Amino acid sequence: MKNLKNKKILITGGAGFIGSHLVKRLHNLQSKVYVTVKYNSIIDNPRLAGIWDKINIIETDLRNQDSVSDLAKTNFDLIFHLAAYNHVGDSFKHILENINSNLISTINLLNSGPKYKKFIHVGTSEIYGHQKILPFNEKEKPNPMSPYALSKYSSELFTILKSKQSKTEILCVRPFNTFGPYQSEKAVIPEIIMKCLNNQTIFTTKGKQTREFNFVENIIDGLLLLNQKISNSIDPINIGSNKPITIKSLVKKIHKMTKSKSKLKIGHLKYRPNEIWKMSANNKIILSKGWRPKVSFDDGLKLTINWYKVFNNLYLKKNSKFNQL
Questions:
Q1: Which of 7, 17, 73, 124 has the fewest CB atoms inside 10 Å of its own CB, making it the most exposed?
Q2: What does the pLDDT look like over 79-115, one tens digit per residue?
Q3: How far apart are the first and last CA of the chain?
Q4: Structural domain total, the chain
């Protein structure tokens, strides 16, 4: 990735889960990294604490056009657009927040934001929804089944439209479910891990739905590789392993790996409205570019569980020094 050295790169959502891993990787590649955050405070952005004083922080709210217009004087070689509201289940209760965070933010960024040579829109596998053909192929028509998926698909479509108008280079990618250190406990894997570590009862659906889960560093490898291999494409590209697992099997695997005493109440919860029953990535395109997952699913889980053990002891234990301050 030598081509990114000294390149001026903006990452929106750079304090988020995937974004923060990307920021750290680009910093290690000696890129000139810029990150948009809502608040210019290390307390509000702990994922970036280790490199906070080594990157360029831009306080802005992408949902606010006036705020975004402050970026208009800046030029970037590359923008990775990851900023988003990203909880599928909660999106049914927070529809307008989804639209503002995922679509309006993208419109503001592309209409009123900085100049750039290339724009990479980071979408989601959720936009596929119910599909008759598995694994999910990029050529299939998306069928969003949640406000989150709908807003992300709309964001992708606007990016493509803007590119056609401005004739700028773009790339739209669709990562499949991602996991790893620093992920919010609202996501399924960290939620299960934390409950197992604290021996809390775990309530789930029957868990027959399948998902594939990709270790975050594999996703970062995919983002950087596609940027290097493809200069401009309005055709979206999946990033995923195509190795699905049932949620029931996932829960039991984490329960075993953590040696937890948690009681498993599988089948206690109802399925989510418009539940997608099967999800996996057709990854022929990205494989053809040379991408391979370097970290296996089980190894990724081990790394993630170990990270949450440290996190759990540091922040949540009653005798934690952090909580005694």
A1: 73
A2: 999 999 988 888 889 999 999 999 999 999 999 999 9
A3: 42
A4: 1
